[in-house]
Amino acid sequence: MKTVYNRLRLLFALPLLLVALFASGQESNIVQISGKVKDQTTGEAIPGVSIQVKGTIAGTTTDNSGNFVLKSRLKFPFTLVFSSLGFQSQEFEVTGTGSRLDIGLATQTLLGKEVVVTASRVEEEALKSPVAIEKLDIRAIKESPAPSFYDALENVKGVQMTTSSLTFKVPNTRGFNIPNNFRFMQLVDGVDMQAATLGVPLGNAIGPTELDIQSVEITPGAASALYGMNAINGMANLQTKSPFLYKGLSVYQKIGVNHVDGIDYDPSVLTETAIRYAHAWKDKVAFKVNVSYLRGTDWRASTAKDQNAAANSRFPALNGAANNPAYDAWNKYGDENNNNVSVGVTLNGKNETFNVRRTGYWEKDLVNPTVENIKADLGLYWRITPKAELSYTYRFGEMDGLFQRGNKIQLDGVKVQNHKLELRGADYFVRGYVMLENTGNSYNLKPLTDNLDLTNKSNNAWRDAFKAKLQSEINAGTELAEAMRRARSTADQGRVQPGTPEFDALKQTIIGINNWDHAAAVAGAPATGGAWLDQHSRVYHVDAQWDLSRHVKLFNLLVGTDGRLYEVIPDGNNFVDFTKPVKERTTPGGKNVHYKKFGGFAQVSKTFFEDKLKLVGSIRVDYNPEFDPKINPRLAAVYTLAQKHNFRASWQNGFRFPALFEALSFVNNGNVRRVGGLSYINDGLGYLENSYTLASVNNFNNAVNKDVADGLSANDAALKNKALLDITALSPTRPERINSFEVGYRSVLLGNKFVVDADAYYNRYDGFLGQVEVAVPATDKVGTDASVLDMLAANRSKQTRYRVYTNAKNTYDNYGASLGLTYNFYKKWTVAGNLNYNDIVDNKEKDVFATGFNTPDWVSNISFGNRELLKNFGFNVVWRWQNTFYWESPLANGDVPAFSTVDAQVNYRIPKAKTTIKVGGSNLFNHRYIQYAAGPTIGALYYASFTIEGLLTK
């Protein structure tokens, strides 16, 4: 605890020291400016208008009558910037004290007028961004028919959403998608939302509530040159509301229903409640508090697709899922490759060997369908001077749900906390934060099912019972497929059945033990084995940025730096103390595990030819002590033709250091140990230099079985087919690398009514990180006859299997393009659409693992709506379609069918009550679909909500 305290003290020391420096050197003149803001057309007062002193953080908002008072330390002259959603921003120079200001704002269409920050880390027009960027502001979020602002990201150009649970959704851009997408960064007010040991971004589970979100900016594709290690596939930057600008009490209530067809569960109620309160004193000190609670019945994953249909292809009678004794269903666990047994019998006078899998259990019988999500945050803000704001924020999230990594994880009571201290000015910030992670009562479905079966019989005992009954049935003349079914029934006798007290009791015992080994397979392990995912980590992070443009005459200059330290408390099961001897690594406790990285960047930009051409160049250096320093440059240009047509081109290099679990995990899972890729983990184990790929071991055994059936002995057949074994020859893990090229065009045409936004990209990945399963022989080195014999299925005890995080040996090229169109064709009628294409160049050379592009070729969205069809009444409809694509992962492989959905909403605003009522639905026609192999089946969700904003304000 003392160590944590010391790190917290160091983390927050720098901002506190800077407070004293900035507070002591500011202007002491106190100026008071007052006035009123009206709609220039109607003359009506406009409440909630933001009034900002340009070049500072000082500002205020108008009250319900459109009046404002700004009191701050300022020096004449200064410029006030007036802005409000739906109105054209206006600047007004104040040269001295005088009469009240009377400001009129003109209404405008918002098309093409967005200001973004994420693309270059400084404010700029989206039209002139050097890379592709998309933005959802408050209006777009409110008008979306999606059930939440996070769901609305799925309709953004270039974004592919992966839904694992009601509480767990992850966006991705430009290919190589996975459900726990650690290649796509999610920031909330500058804080990285990735949970360290889970290795997943939790932006929708612990991020902003529906009431506090201000905007979401998405940068498709690589952003590593400015944002570092996690942004190789893009990033989402979520900004929350300032308590100085958005005050008062707000309440949000949503009630919905899913499972409307009753197929997976009975129709189920979903509720979400959120409360926000913010207050400011004289625009000097402010605070805000947010609390939200969601509860619902999760989507169910129940796809029965067999991904091992060819296991016994020599026997036509065993074709089809109902007849396949090695059936391996997408959403059934315990029937995977590690639970394959070879059963040899005499059939038709020949010695035949069959591949048979343990029976396993369906996902629906292992998980809790009820999910809850609690989010809370507190923010304290102090404007020390007009140019310096100090803030402290605390964020807490607790969630249930499912997510998929190498296996499915039932999240149960996962808790994540965040403390952030930040000093911010108009052209700089310094921040430090601490992230605390506790996985609660979560458990892994794979060891749970393995250990449920092993508690009944070991794999060998089960195999022997199966074999004896199978031979008996064959001798009695029973048809082969039926003989297999009867043999399974005999071998499964005594196995606990879902829905019984015995099953529930054994399950509870297993998920309460943080040791996934089983006594039937590992000496000294628990009698029932375990499945508890008990992980605890801390992340310490500091970063700073300074815009030096006003101090440099020739060009604009932005510099920044950051540092991060991961600290994992070893549990002896997933993360261990590697300073211990190999035989003692899996005992609990030991020294905490540390993983760190540091980085810094500089960005230069300059305009030429009367601001028609903007050139941007940046360079970033990242260092992780486990690897050599990595340099990430970016070059970009934007050219504006005829004041409307903006052409852009960019190139950047990016690296991604292995995530914590890719680098340092050490977990036994189904008698297969998953190991991180750092070289010292291999010491004493030998999987890097002395192993065969499991895929080749399986092919080898299939060939051996055929030759044994033709009369050869097992050893002779093994030596005959030894050329089928592929020696792995792995290298220690190194960082992934991407080279990304992008061109784009963006314009607003037809009198600010029509927006065109197009981009195309080409990426090259080198050292792509993934998992390969290998087998290490016990008797001798790979290549020897003795090691070949160890690879026989009957000699499984002479193999030690590992699932290793390593780099692909090939480079991978992918490319794509997207087109977005928005047309405000009549008054407030708008139609918009986007079309996205992504593909990968096929490699002729076989690699050590499947990289998993996991992205549909074509995705399209079309929306149609009117935000004010009648007074205070609006609607919006969105249609989405994507084509069939192939998904590959360590858990499941296969086609994800094409699907289309329709979302719609209508809303009615009651201005006097400050209330908006919204009724809508996602997947309105209940076209059931999945988004990835082994993922949940998603159906319709209908909802009604009301939002009351700005109560208890003047």
Question: Can you characterise this structure?
Answer:
β15 and β16 form a beta hairpin. α6 (459-475) packs antiparallel against α7 (480-491) and α10 packs across α11. This protein has twelve helices and 52 strands. It has 954 residues and is mainly beta. 13% of the residues lie in helices and 45% in strands. The model is unreliable at 15-28 (pLDDT under 50). The strands form eleven sheets. It has a 22-stranded antiparallel β-barrel. The longest helix is centred in the first third of the chain and has 23 residues, at 2-24.
Short account of what is shown:
It is built from 12 helices and 52 strands. It has 954 residues and is mainly beta.
Strands, count: 52
- Helix percentage range: 10-25%
Structural class: mainly beta
Averaging pLDDT over every residue, what do you get?
A: 91
Oligomer: single chain
- What's the end-to-end separation, in Å? 46 Å
Strand and helix layout:
Elements lengths: L1 H23 L5 E10 L10 E4 L5 E3 L5 E7 L4 E6 L6 E5 L6 E5 L9 E2 L7 E2 L8 E3 L1 H6 L15 E7 L2 E6 L11 E4 L2 E2 L1 E2 L4 E2 L1 H4 L6 E8 L3 H4 L6 E7 L7 E11 L9 E14 L3 E13 L34 E2 L6 E8 L2 E8 L3 E2 L7 E16 L2 E17 L3 E17 L3 E11 L4 E2 H12 L2 H17 L4 H12 L9 H10 L25 E12 L8 E14 L23 E16 L4 E11 L6 E12 L3 E12 L3 H5 L1 E3 L3 E4 L16 E2 H16 L4 H7 L15 E14 L4 E13 L2 E9 L7 H6 L8 E9 L4 E15 L2 E12 L17 E13 L2 E10 L2 E4 L4 E4 L2 E12 L4 E8 L18 E11 L3
Parallel strand pairs: 1-7, 13-18, 38-43
Antiparallel strand pairs: 1-4, 2-3, 2-5, 5-6, 8-9, 10-17, 11-12, 13-14, 15-16, 17-18, 19-20, 19-52, 20-21, 21-26, 22-25, 23-24, 26-27, 27-28, 28-29, 28-30, 29-31, 31-32, 32-33, 33-34, 34-35, 35-36, 36-40, 37-38, 39-42, 40-41, 41-44, 42-43, 44-45, 45-46, 46-47, 47-50, 48-49, 50-51, 51-52
